[in-house]
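S1.2 Input.
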Amino acid sequence: MPTCPAPVRPLDAAAAAELTTAAGELLAEHGSATAPGLLAALPAARASLGEDLHRGLRPVDGPDGLFVLRGLRPDDAGLGPTPGHWSTVGDAGALWDVVLLLVSALMGTPIAWDGQQDGRFVHNIVPSPGHEDEQTGASSTVLLTPHTEDAFHPGRAHLLLLACMRNHDRIATTAASVRRAELTARDVAELTRPAVPILPDDAYEQARRYGGPPAPVPTLFDTGAGLALRYDPAYTPVADADDTWREAYGRLADELARVSVAVALEPGDVLVVDNDVVVHGRVPFKARYDGTDRWLKRASVRVADRPTRPAAESGEHGYGQTALTAWAR
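S1.3 Output.
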């Protein structure tokens, strides 16, 4: 697996300073990165930023379906120790929450989920004791299987942003574009057929208890601009599908593994992923739980009027999960 061939969009010192200054002013005015008033103020703050930031922080537009924004510089000592669980983060790294919200606002509309991390718009991804073997961001010792973020839900993000706060061990995030995969026309035809559902992952306790029947969904779909996917094998009952579909799904998995790249994020890097084109995961690692472990912040973004999803998704129940938007549109 190649290491870090991802395209890089550099932020120069002036643009990085403008962004962090604007974030600091918002945080000082509203007192908390989770304050409703701060969320409502994001569109005006976005509009006040300079043209260089608007141009540099546009959504993904390259064939790889991802890029690394580089140039931000968090202070490792000032962050404090890596928390042992997202619920204990408190205000640690709050400035970077707001920076990530501003970056998200420049690309679209930040979204959150009422059933995940208390409805926060910025999630903290840290290894947590007792969760080492799960297929969630809190795991460590297992390979986090490449997947579409929130694949179970029709309102999932168009863009996923992962901001690195700490990564002393250079633990890699994996990424694979379906548009780099070599699939036969027969495989594509099979996987555009809705054979089985995608179930909510372990981070969504309420959704996993939802009583509505799960609806089969297509794994692949055509956006008009190229092939896209909705993929989460860890939460897909593959065994319930017929042999022909399973064989095509297996070939897709093999191809995604073949074209996968490993991106070892540096502190301050923001990995921006097109969630319709690229699946992401993480290599296994051994957590120390000593305050120095890997720490990412995650944001999800919808891009307005992006006609990339099958029309049938509008009828899905989403397992009772409601997507929240950062401001009223």
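S1.4 Remarks. The longest helix spans residues 13-30.
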